[in-house]
Amino acid sequence: MKQYIISYDITNDKRRNKIRKLLCDYAVPVQYSVFEARLSEEDYIMLRHKLSRLLRKDEDSIIFYLQCSRCRDGIIRLGNCSDPFGDGIYIV
C-alpha cells in the first residue's frame, strides 16, 4: 500500500460531483477538494484510469502526491481535522 494526497480542480459541477463520488470510493476526503488514500498498485491504476475517463484534460486537473513514510511523519494537522488512517481505517 502506498499513501497519496489527491487534489482536484474541476470546473464543471456535474463532472466534479462524479469525480468526488468516485474518489470517495477509494479515498477519504480531508478538505473540500483534497483526499487522502492508501492504495494498492492495482487500485491506484484503476482509480487513475477511471478518473482519466471522467475529466476533461483541457479544463480539469487532478494531482496525486505520493507520500513516503518520512513525509507522512512530517504531516502537521491544525484545526478540525484528524488523520484518516490514524485509527486503523483502511479504504480498500
UniProtKB/TrEMBL annotation:
Enzyme class: hydrolase
Chain positions recorded as Mg(2+) binding sites: 9
MF term (GO), any: RNA endonuclease activity
Cofactor entry: Mg(2+)
Pfam families xrefs: CRISPR_Cas2
Record SUPFAM superfamilies: TTP0101/SSO1404-like
The keyword Metal-binding is annotated on this UniProt entry: yes
One record GO biological process: maintenance of CRISPR repeat elements
EC number: 3.1.-.-
The entry's keywords: Antiviral defense, Endonuclease, Hydrolase, Magnesium, Metal-binding, Nuclease
Keyword Magnesium in record: yes
Stated family: Belongs to the CRISPR-associated endoribonuclease Cas2 protein family.
Assembly, per entry: Homodimer, forms a heterotetramer with a Cas1 homodimer.
Known function: CRISPR (clustered regularly interspaced short palindromic repeat), is an adaptive immune system that provides protection against mobile genetic elements (viruses, transposable elements and conjugative plasmids). CRISPR clusters contain sequences complementary to antecedent mobile elements and target invading nucleic acids. CRISPR clusters are transcribed and processed into CRISPR RNA (crRNA). Functions as a ssRNA-specific endoribonuclease. Involved in the integration of spacer DNA into the CRISPR cassette.
Protein name, as recorded: CRISPR-associated endoribonuclease Cas2
Source organism of the structure: Desulforamulus reducens (strain ATCC BAA-1160 / DSM 100696 / MI-1)
Lineage: Bacteria, Bacillati, Bacillota, Clostridia, Eubacteriales
